[in-house]
């Protein structure tokens, strides 16, 4: 098998065609406890990272918003409140289990009229060109097999003047924080995963996939290559997470 | 730093939304401002906060890229004074706060926020259940009324003690009479001094 036909799945190299299924297995396994684990792993800070994403979205009543890899709908729920009845939020996820949990959470939060759900691959978004005012993908891009293709697909469906926000784990800016973070990721996270979801492997994958994900500057360059201009990023919590914002002119 | 700021703003947002939850009238009035964003730019310390009116709640944000309905900027202490002022419109002009945009929308927002009437009994009942909530609220009302009465009595008693018992303060009539007597003495002593001076001058004239 040639190098070009394989891709990283955490620290492993797997055939490109298999990554999607392997990622799906991970999320099928953790879907029901996803919220609990997010709060535990990040000490609740993921909610603040998502708040900042909403602040930079400039979402307004009447806007059309696409939340890719929407998980349990944290961002989609906030956007549904902002865009109101004249707007529309599409919660998309490639994983059926996550989408099902997301839909249940959205209904529990009282969002029914202005939210649609779609099981879709970020690399081939099933929407017309120039359709959305804003696209967000939070903690999802690193699981996508062909990230560049996904960014290009997002660029296509975004309206001119619209913005893409990519919230993703990144590279800590301090050496000391990086060491502490490594210890935490490779020791504490799998242990938590084992205790809460009885699945240490999925959280081992989480830690590995974060390390394999492009750093701030590389992702910025990828977004520029996809056509976004300007592209800026904001480090949060010492660079553990970065929010990239790209505008489609 | 950004994470801390976000946490602070999130905490305030939760408080405000909880308060609004127990004041349906104010919440209804806010519906007229739905979709509008207001910017507040504090100085000393520097802090920008944006308030967005959503369908069911308010959203506070540390930054905002879009248009705003109105923006207010000024010193933090002036904002605090404005919050406690009775006549907000007058205070807004007096404290040197700068307003840009629609003052009418800002005035509606200000009016809603200053007339918040929170149903604390409902808030307690949500946590404890209806019957215990009512009993607790009754207890709090009784304590508050007793405390108000005690404070009122204490205030009256201390005024009486200072005026009547301690003798530290004179009655205005007494003070006026005393003041008149002092003025008389001063007038008489001035006349006496004038007579002495006149006599001195006469004696000096005789000696010469």
Plain-language structure description:
The complex is a heterodimer of chains A (249) and B (208). Chain A has one domain (28-173, 205-247): Rossmann fold. Chain A is 47% helix and 22% strand. Chain A has helices at residues 16-30, 34-42, 46-57, 74-83, 96-108, 147-157, 175-197, 200-212, 216-226, and strands at residues 6-9, 12-15, 64-68, 88-93, 115-119, 132-138, 158-169, 231-236, 241-247. In chain A, helix 2 runs antiparallel to helix 7. Chain A is globular, with a radius of gyration of 17 Å. Chain B has 208 residues and is of the alpha+beta class. Chain B has two domains: 2-114, Nonspecific Lipid-transfer Protein, Chain A (2-Layer Sandwich), CATH 3.30.1050.10; 121-207. Chain B contains eight helices and five strands, in the order ααββββααβαααα. A five-stranded mixed sheet of chain B has the order 3-2-1-4-5. In chain B, a hairpin with a 3-residue loop joins strand 1 (37-43) and strand 2. In chain B, helix 2 (24-30) runs antiparallel to helix 5 (103-114) and helix 6 packs across helix 7 (130-165). The radius of gyration of chain B is 32 Å and the shape is elongated.
Instruction: Work out the helicity level of chain B.
Output: 55-70%
> Termini separation of chain B (Å)?
94 Å
CATH topological fold name of chain A: Rossmann fold
* Strand/helix succession of chain A: EEHHHEHEHEEHEHHHEE
Assembly state (oligomeric): heterodimer
How are strands sequenced across the largest beta sheet of chain B? 3-2-1-4-5
Give the SSE order of chain B as H and E letters: HHEEEEHHEHHHH
Features:
heterodimer, A: 249 residues, alpha/beta, Rossmann fold, two-stranded antiparallel sheet, 9 strands, 22% strand, globular, B: 208 residues, alpha+beta, Nonspecific Lipid-transfer Protein, Chain A, 2 domains, five-stranded mixed beta sheet, 8 helices, elongated
Task: Please write out the topology.
The complex is a heterodimer of chains A (249) and B (208).
Chain A: E1 6-9, E2 12-15, H1 16-30, H2 34-42, H3 46-57, E3 64-68, H4 74-83, E4 88-93, H5 96-108, E5 115-119, E6 132-138, H6 147-157, E7 158-169, H7 175-197, H8 200-212, H9 216-226, E8 231-236, E9 241-247
Parallel strand pairs in A: 3-4, 3-6, 4-5, 6-7
Antiparallel strand pairs in A: 1-2, 7-9, 8-9
Helix pairs in contact in A: 2-7, 3-4, 6-9, 7-8
Chain B: H1 2-21, H2 24-30, E1 37-43, E2 47-53, E3 58-61, E4 70-75, H3 76-84, H4 88-94, E5 98-101, H5 103-114, H6 120-128, H7 130-165, H8 172-207
Parallel strand pairs in B: 1-4
Antiparallel strand pairs in B: 1-2, 2-3, 4-5
Helix pairs in contact in B: 2-5, 6-7
